[in-house]
Amino acid sequence: MKFLFVGAGAVGAYVGAKMARAGYDVTLYARGRHLKAMQQNGVRVVGANEDFVTHPKCVGGLAEAGPMDVVFLCVKAHAVPGLAPLLAPVLGPETSVVSTQNGLPWWYFQGLEGPLSGTRLERIDPGGVIAGAIEARRVIGSLIYFATEIEQPGVVRHNDGNRISLGEPNGSSSQRIRAIADALIAAGFKARVKVDLRTEIWVKILGNVSFNPLSALTGATLAQMVRHKEVSGLVRRMMEETQALAAKLGVKMPVTIDQRIAGSEKIGQHKTSMLQDFEAGRPLELEAIVGSVVELGERMGVEMPSTRAVYACVKLLVERRDAALAAKTQ
């Protein structure tokens, strides 16, 4: 099998490097200084329990890669609409595309039975660009449960975790998804095939929809938010609104809100990915994680006042930050 990691940043380069070390045919697609460093020196992975260098093929253009068996989309959700139309050179007749994005994925309602089948959320897939470029039959969903960061160009630091959940949108345990899971396991990951990945998506959203935007607003870590009386109350209200929306879709949460909050507190003094992106001046996954939930709530007739208010505040915060950054460059 030939694997391509599109967006070989902290996540893509880490998974790709481990799979290359395990002997798989891996290509990484990246840009800029990170790409040049990987081409010249390979990919170095460092962490508490690992320190190695591997040399997968690294390209700066998708045409250089050619048709693949499996394409991992490892860019942030807001980058997928611009990237999806460029994937044609790497998509063969049977190529599978594994999505790794946070929030509600663009494919969530594809193949779903009932009145919402085929529903498209504008905040995730504006104009249907992604669905038009990536056929539904190609899609495999995934959820990533590990923390990595680019320490310097060509060097990825693994901080915690090694779990990946995979799921066919139709809930089947297909031959292709088992083959991908087996390859990830051989590379050292705890990869599990889930028959109902959509429920697990909502469990992850339950925490992300509240902690991520609130961290951007406050600059606080997970533990600081949980231990602050007023903020923790707001976290709970946002989770309650999200849980009500999931229930309207027929999703039964396997964990309680108390358990979800307690699990976040155990992680401790950790900055969410949205706070890290905000502080670094990068675009936020706000629409996929929060905006899409607000949009879906509107469609389903579920009132979400707390979530909507926090979403609006973060949008303004980002607009002001970006304006200030633009002014500095003039």
Fraction of residues in helix: 40-55%
Rg over CA atoms: 19 Å
- Low-pLDDT stretches: none
Label the overall shape. globular
Quaternary structure: single chain
How is this structure best described in words?
- With 330 residues, this protein is α/β, with parallel strands linked by helices.
- The chain is built from 13 helices and ten strands.
- The protein has helices at residues 10-21, 32-41, 62-65, 80-83, 129-133, 175-186, 197-218, 222-226, 229-248, 257-267, 273-279, 286-300, 305-329; strands spanning 2-6, 25-29, 43-47, 51-54, 57-59, 68-73, 91-99, 139-152, 155-167, 190-193.
- Strands 1, 2, 3, 4, 5, 6, 7, 8, 9 and 10 form a ten-stranded mixed β-sheet that branches.
- Strand 1, helix 1 (10-21) and strand 2 (25-29) form a beta-alpha-beta unit.
- Helix 7 packs across helix 12, helix 7 crosses helix 13 and helix 12 (286-300) runs antiparallel to helix 13.
- The longest helix has 25 residues, at 305-329.
- The mean pLDDT is 95.
Give the secondary structure arrangement, pairings included.
Elements: E1 2-6, H1 10-21, E2 25-29, H2 32-41, E3 43-47, E4 51-54, E5 57-59, H3 62-65, E6 68-73, H4 80-83, E7 91-99, H5 129-133, E8 139-152, E9 155-167, H6 175-186, E10 190-193, H7 197-218, H8 222-226, H9 229-248, H10 257-267, H11 273-279, H12 286-300, H13 305-329
Parallel strand pairs: 1-2, 1-6, 2-5, 3-9, 6-7, 7-8, 9-10
Antiparallel strand pairs: 3-4, 8-9
Helix pairs in contact: 7-9, 7-11, 7-12, 7-13, 12-13
Brief sketch in words of this structure:
The chain has 330 residues and is an alpha/beta fold. It is 46% helix and 21% strand. The chain has helices spanning 10-21, 32-41, 62-65, 80-83, 129-133, 175-186, 197-218, 222-226, 229-248, 257-267, 273-279, 286-300, 305-329, and strands spanning 2-6, 25-29, 43-47, 51-54, 57-59, 68-73, 91-99, 139-152, 155-167, 190-193.
